[in-house]
Amino acid sequence: MLALALALAVPVGGTATPRHAGGPKPKPPRPSAIAKKRKPRRHVRKARLTLGDRAALLALREVGTPYAWGGGGPGGFDCSGLTSWAYGKLGVLLPHNAAAQFGVGRAVQRSKLRRGDLLFFYGLGHVGIYLGGGRMVHAPQSGRNVEVVRLADHYAERLVGARRITRA
In which domain, by residue range, is 155 found? Predict the structure, then answer.
């Protein structure tokens, strides 16, 4: 039986490797996946989203939602309703009033703003969430929808202050 298997494996002419006339040499067979040496995996730490990052992302999902005076979402928001709703979804209770929200968290300098910081305007009568890159998401006024705006366009000179919200 072994002789029959060997006879079938070796072509007539005597060698087990085929000859190639002038063509490229065949590539050697690939080693099995088991035989390959694998480089050790480096454990790459994924950056965790901060509380502010997550609040900003939640508020961004509401872009296009209509402004509603006294609205706390999700069908309609006023400015402080949007901020309190976004942080509330993350377990942080904020008052539904821009001036009252100014007393929560810690003060942040304009040069140190991070995504998720609350921005206060108009003598504390308006609040938005900083997105980074000089932009914020907010619920502007009646007849408009939650939107993203550049601070430089209308709001930078009216900024009263900023607060960073952290877990209690």
Answer: 51-164
